[in-house]
Write a structure and sequence with these properties.
8% strand, alpha+beta, 11 strands, five-stranded antiparallel beta sheet
Length: 746
């Protein structure tokens, strides 16, 4: 199957390239047009119905008409001279608020003349209502509700139009304004980070191009992989978005971004694997046509690429069993995307090699001369001579980093990145006069059972009890539905609702108080940001305990089938497991101890497991596959390991740096959780490439010899004497020349 795909692609390269170009551009445009129609922004929407906050959201929608995509913006209004508000000021604020609540806000049309079917028009009349006045009368708060996908740039434009219009209205009345809340914070942060994101993205692409130029001394080899991978990534995004629409599945807003980062990283990796082997064989076989070499390289490396891709697919597919919907959607989406990249690795990439041929490496003249013995050869020789020493050193390094796991804490906080944005400044001003959670209250929903109704007297004990809970700063008035079958009570906490303290408060004393004081014949649920993330922490904890062993078992099973060995997969899994433990431990040491953060992000262990274990296995499969290929030839096993490291280490090292740069760019984000993911994943990829794949795994194989592939061992050395003294027969552990042909058995 693999040979058939690569063979067809290298025989008809321009047809394959044209097909990918047309389909890729179409699917990219499809993804851009429809992505915001299939994304859902409410974290609570991804919780199973049995969680308390999910039940509260359902009551809010059914009884109080709260929309899941409603975004509340808190508007602060005060006098420009800083004096306390007078009654006349408050009347004027009320009049302006009433006017704003009647005014239809038009969403600005995109500046690039985008067709209307490619974006959603969020024009609407916002709901604006007075909320409260500060105790010192320094300002009054208004609540404004804008409906739509909070990640859609179209809604961002609508918010800006509303914000600017509101500023003008109150400025004419001699008032100053400030805006905060989820949507306001999101827009302000995006504006503050726009320049940084552009610079970081340009630097990342520049670094990738520079690495390719330094390695291959070629312009085509630098730009063709990036262009091809970008087209495939766009096509994969279109497949995911289209599948989501057809299946009626909503995506989390982070999914498309995550797909882009993953595919650029692994796509460039796969292209690098092919380019290094293609260059090697063009040097070794100058009399063979480039298309024939591309066909053989595509088939041989395609086997390793397929193995590597399937491990990633298996790892991410296991998220389909998660209870938290965000994981349950993210995993299969990335798995589908990786399958698209795999198809490109077996068709588009070999076709590009066949179409460009030796010109791929122009103007470099390296194809016509013998490659110099470099550091890769020295490392290969060292691994073959001193495997036990390198194993001990590698394990000691990884073990030292893994000590950070001792005392590691999970941080479920969702605090902002500390940007000095207008929204953050406004929130700080509000917090100085009012409870920290005033703009984002926890909400208690009480519903009557069996057709009964709620009474003021029957429910009065609940708000009174809530007011006495330590950490509750204010309890709002009880609001009943018209038929009195449901009631809503807003609870304003004294702590930031995005903090761990708020989650502990809501999941503990608040819910306990609600349970003790719910009227007979009624049921109550606690919702709001703190409640949602408290339940998410529970769901994620359950998923971590489930997904880890299932994913590990699936990866091990795939490795057994693909490597046709029982011992080799165990060696790889142990090595990768050490790399994962070292990465997570180092992250805890850096963030929890060095930077004095509350802990590592609650999602980090899962992200690291999937990316470091799955993507790190890519490099292990590539180098293990080459070791087995070299061991199929007569000669000492250690010499085969040395040759494999010499040929494969440059590809693994280059791919590791490229992938680490791709993920490391996330570290420039202001969100602490994203920073941790960027830092930890980049570190994990570097450890996987330079320590685990280039040193530890080859050293283990050198020590075990051909027994690594038990029970189906590759070719044995000739003669019992040679078998007893592997690695001592040649003058150099590198053994036979690197000009050997590709193994015909593959």
């Amino acid at each position: 199957m693999i040979r058939a795909l690569t063979g067809f692609s290298t025989r008809n390269p321009w047809k394959v390239i044209a097909l990918w170009a047309v389909v890729g551009i179409f699917l990219t445009l499809l993804a851009q047009a429809l992505v915001f129609k299939v994304t859902r922004t409410g974290n609570g929407d991804f919780l199973p119905a049995q969680y308390d906050s999910a039940a509260a959201l359902k009551v809010a929608e059914e009884k109080f008409g709260v929309k899941s995509d409603a975004n509340t913006v808190t508007v602060l209004v005060g006098r420009q001279d800083g004096k306390p508000l007078t009654r006349a000021d408050q009347r004027r604020i009320g009049e302006v608020a009433e006017e704003l609540g009647r005014r239809h806000v038009e969403m600005p049309k995109p500046e690039d003349d985008t067709p209307s079917f490619m974006y959603e028009d969020y024009s609407q009349t916002p709901k604006v209502a007075p909320a409260m006045v500060a105790p010192d009368r320094g300002f009054e708060l208004l609540s404004a509700q804008l409906t739509g996908n909070s990640t859609d740039p179209g809604l961002h434009d609508l918010y800006r139009a509303f914000r600017d219009g509101t500023k003008d209205e109150f400025s004419d009345a001699g008032m100053r304004t400030g805006f905060t809340g989820g949507l306001a914070d999101l827009v302000d942060t995006a504006e503050a980070e726009e320049a940084t994101a552009t610079v970081v993205g340009a630097l990342m692409l520049g670094l990738i191009v520079l690495i390719h130029i330094l390695v291959f001394r070629s312009a085509l080899a630098a730009f063709v992989p990036l262009i091809a991978v970008a087209v495939v990534a766009g096509a994969a995004g279109g497949v995911v978005v289209g599948t989501s629409m057809l299946a009626g599945i909503d995506l989390d807003p982070s999914t498309p971004r995550m797909i882009g980062v993953v595919l650029i990283g692994i796509g460039v990796d796969y292209f690098l694997f092919l380019l290094f082997r293609f260059r090697e064989q063009l040097r070794a076989r100058p009399d063979v046509s480039a298309r024939a070499v591309a066909a053989e390289v595509g088939a041989r490396v395609g086997t390793a690429i397929t193995s590597a891709a399937l491990t990633i697919v298996a790892a991410f597919a296991t998220l389909g069993i998660a209870t938290f919907g965000q994981f349950r959607v993210l995993g299969p989406a990335i798995a589908v995307s990786v399958l698209v990249m795999l198809l490109a690795g077996l068709t588009l990439m070999p076709a590009l090699l066949a179409a460009t041929g030796r010109a791929m490496f122009w103007p470099s003249r390296s194809l016509g001369r013998e490659p110099r013995t470099g550091k890769a050869a020295s490392i290969g020789d060292l691994v073959a001579r001193r495997p036990l020493t390198l194993i001990v050193a590698s394990v000691a390094l990884l073990g030292a980093l893994a000590t950070g796991l001792v005392g590691m804490r999970m941080d479920f906080g969702q605090t902002s990145g500390g940007q000095d944005t207008p929204a953050a400044v406004t929130a700080a001003e509000i917090a100085r006069s009012l409870p920290a959670g005033v703009s984002d209250p926890a909400t208690v929903y009480v519903t009557a059972k069996d057709g009964t109704t709620l009474t003021d007297r029957g429910i009065a004990a609940l708000p009174e009890a809530l007011a006495g809970v330590d950490g509750v700063g204010r309890v709002g008035e009880t609001v009943f539905t018209k038929d009195r079958t449901a009631a809503r009570i807003d609870v304003h906490l004294t702590v930031d609702t995005r903090s761990q303290r708020a989650r502990d408060l809501v999941s503990g004393p608040v819910r306990a108080t609600v349970a003790d004081h719910t009227p007979p014949g009624a049921q109550a649920h606690v919702g709001g940001t703190a409640a949602v993330f408290a339940d998410i922490s529970t769901a994620v904890g359950h998923d971590l305990r489930t997904v880890f062993p299932v994913a590990a078992a699936l990866i091990a099973l795939i490795l057994i089938v693909l490597l046709r060995s029982l011992l080799a997969p165990a060696v790889l899994m142990v090595a990768v497991g050490l790399g994962f433990a070292a990465t997570l431990g180092a992250s805890a040491l850096f963030f929890q101890h060095l930077l004095d953060r509350p802990g590592v992000g609650f999602i980090l262990p899962l992200v690291l497991f999937l990316f470091v274990v799955a993507l790190g296995t890519d490099y292990n499969i590539l180098i293990s596959d080459r070791i087995r290929e070299e061991m199929d030839r007569p000669g000492p096993a250690r010499a085969a390991v040395a040759r494999a490291v010499r040929h494969t280490a440059p590809a693994v090292a280059t791919a590791g740096v490229v992938l680490a740069a791709s993920f490391g760019s996330l570290g420039a984000n202001s969100d602490p959780g994203t920073q941790q993911i960027g830092f930890a994943t980049a570190l994990g990829i570097m450890l996987s490439a330079f320590v685990v794949s280039i040193v530890l795994v080859p050293a283990l194989v050198a020590l075990l010899g051909r027994a690594t592939w038990w029970p189906v061992r590759p070719g044995r050395p000739k003669g019992s004497h040679q078998g007893r003294h592997q690695g001592r027969q040649d003058e150099s552990p590198a053994g036979p020349s690197h000009h050997d042909h590709l193994s015909p058995t593959h």
